[in-house]
Amino acid sequence: MSDPSQIVTTAHPGLSAAEVAERVARGEVNDVPVRSSRSTKEIVRANVFTRFNAIIGVLFLIILAVGPLQDGLFGFVIIANTAIGIFQELRAKKTLDSLAVIGEAKPVVRRDGVPVPLPTGSIVLGDVIELGPGDKCVVDGEVAEADGLEIDESLLTGEADPVLKKPGDPVMSGSFVVAGGGAFTATKVGREAYAAQLAEEATRFTLVHSELRTGISTILKYVTWLMLPAALGLVVSQLVVQGHDWREAVRRMVAGIVPMVPEGLVLLTSVAFAIGVIRLGRKQCLVQELPAIEGLARVDVVCLDKTGTLTEGGMDVSELRVLAGAQETTEAQETAEFQESAEIQEPAEARESYVRQVLGALGESDPRPNASLQAIVDAYPDGKSGWRCAESLPFSSARKYSGASLHGPDGESGTWLLGAPDVLLPAGDPALTEVDGLNAQGLRVLLLARAARELDDPRVAEDVRPTALVVLEQRLRSDAAETLRYFAEQNVSAKVISGDNAVSVGAVAAKLALAGAEAPVDARKLPREREEMAAALDRGAVFGRVSPQQKRDMVGALQSRGHTVAMTGDGVNDVLALKDADIGVSMGSGSEATRAVAQIVLLNNSFATLPSVVAEGRRVIGNITRVATLFLTKTVYSVLLAVLVVCTRVSYPFLPRHLTLLSTLTIGVPAFFLALAPNKERARPHFVRRVMRYAIPSGLIAGAATFAAYLLARAHYADAGLGTDTLGAETSAATLTLFLISLWVLAIIARPYTWWRVALVAAMGAGFVVVLVVPWLQRFFALKLIGATMPWTAVAIAVAAGVALELTWRWVSRRFPA
Length: 818
Prior knowledge:
Blueprint: H1 17-26, H2 40-48, H3 51-66, H4 73-103, E1 108-111, E2 114-117, E3 128-131, E4 140-152, H5 154-157, E5 163-164, E6 170-171, E7 176-188, H6 196-202, H7 211-241, H8 246-257, H9 263-282, E8 285-287, H10 291-298, E9 301-304, E10 311-322, H11 336-344, H12 347-365, H13 371-379, E11 388-396, E12 401-407, E13 413-419, H14 421-424, H15 430-439, E14 444-451, E15 465-476, H16 480-489, E16 493-497, H17 502-511, E17 521-522, H18 530-539, E18 542-544, H19 548-560, E19 565-569, H20 575-580, E20 583-587, H21 592-597, E21 600-602, H22 610-648, H23 656-675, H24 687-720, H25 726-749, H26 755-773, H27 775-781, H28 789-815
Parallel strand pairs: 9-16, 9-19, 16-18, 17-18, 19-20, 20-21
Antiparallel strand pairs: 1-2, 1-3, 3-7, 4-5, 4-6, 4-7, 8-21, 10-15, 11-12, 12-13, 13-14, 14-15
Keywords: Membrane, Translocase, Transmembrane, Transmembrane helix
Main location: membrane
Protein name: HAD-IC family P-type ATPase
């Protein structure tokens, strides 16, 4: 094949350099910013200006006003968490932006008669842009050249049928070529183009529309409503009933309100997602929408296109079989020239030589051959031998064949078709038996046939004369078997859905040890009713002769049974299914159209990257679900303590510094490490229910036990005659109790234990011990255990609460399984 950059086109040479410069000066440039991520300004705003940061910020300012500073430590924790969130998202932005540039397709634009690949932002008004199968129309325009050009506008109009375009017909940005080729002239560029705004929105970095984040938002909404009456009750209780100094009352009120806000949970989720993007980016995986990481983790069915996914894109011609009795000769062939060649060669050799010439001419007739035709071009590079193509019919995945009207060097002419044998031949044809045997070996077979009708006749594929079988050998991906095995181990069903012959696809899948490959299904025999189709899909694993519309129907049928479906593909025929699937995964070398609709693009074209994406999603969701229990346990016990304090009319047991210390050691620091830990558990639905079923009983036990220890300490120290130190001693006992119970909750959540998890829990316990034994930390946090009776009583209460926690968690696991 020739180098496109060396081909000079004269029919529509495109703009000259001077004309391009003029249009650039006038601003007629396709300057729509295709962003893969939020701007730096948006990232900062999203992390700083939140409802909960506003609440915590106000409370922090209040503490700064009434003092002392150590009671405002929670404010610095928020600042630190916000800074971490901004930093991680900026790193993710950098990764996404760089990968998006790598993955961006460059349309071929004619400048001074020479086709040149250019970034979409360099296209100007009046440019002539070439089109081929899979190319996306990046601007609006008008068709200048058309060679069987069929364009799918379904992403814009909803109409699934491709539209045959002729010179003068309009082209809309956002549509894509499904067959044929041509060129169009740009008539609208930049923000004037029809799909410019849609394209910008489709590629934007998002943190929304996920069950995880929606669930957290729901929880936080209810917490906000609980805070208002709790704050009012605590102020009245501490200021009026107890008669505290107003500064002390305000400090105690803030101490009761701050721990109700699981402010770190939102930021931790953002950080976990952002780190996930960075990790996948290093593996050349472009996540176009962050929820895709979560979505793929929830997938239980993955639909695979054979070509480009299980097999490599390239193919090789392994054999050419001229069919016995093939009527490859015509009256024109009975010329002196052919007779002369037949005298030199054996008849069989002559027939094969003739077929090679036809195949070579067919290969040359398509300027943008697909993988099958490219293999033929490579096998018969010199086969043209004076043949001329008068008209061509590009390959379409819907009709399963291509064709051309050819004129031979000796004056003969004829119409030839190249495509699927079981489509071109009637059932029962003897050649199909031979084809089935080859397909059973995992080989791909194309039929070369002579047509009796003209190429533009709708019935051109009827009554054809079979001439030869072209046997193609597909290259299996070395990593495909291991990836399929991974999905099987993770209880994810793999369905191979291909447009190729079912037996051939089944043989390829069998080589990769896919369960169910021994019973391939011809999709043309599938029922059309959604429920019956879904049942057949559940039973089978390999489906051949699937049309593009059928792929879409199959995805919908699987979804109707509650399956979360991922679809992989790289060809134009996969676009509709990719768009409708829960998660669309495209290969980086795939068509521009597939990359545009997919949420995940594998830039290294490696199917083996998919397990990494699944694992990353499971890590994020599983770990966020795990640590969310820590945050919400704190919310529950904080609400309970506030209610008990108001009802019993006692002093609130804690200052803000105490709960900041507890939150840091039992939630903040360990949650960060646990959120980044490996986690292979498949994501399950009902996030809120799964978290609250443990958080509510844990919080109630922790709050009740802590308040009981506080009341015992009040009674004990009242008799001890400590005077002004009574409240400090009571607070220290209550703090010890709550810390031990919270540490127990952490120990439960950290299971199953590994060395680093045990070390993490032990380090948090050691940190609290350091605070208790270092004099200046004692003073800073206002903690001092007095005597031996009450501290050991606090330990005993915490142990009892820990036993209650263990029993409750086991009961909840049995009674309310996830």
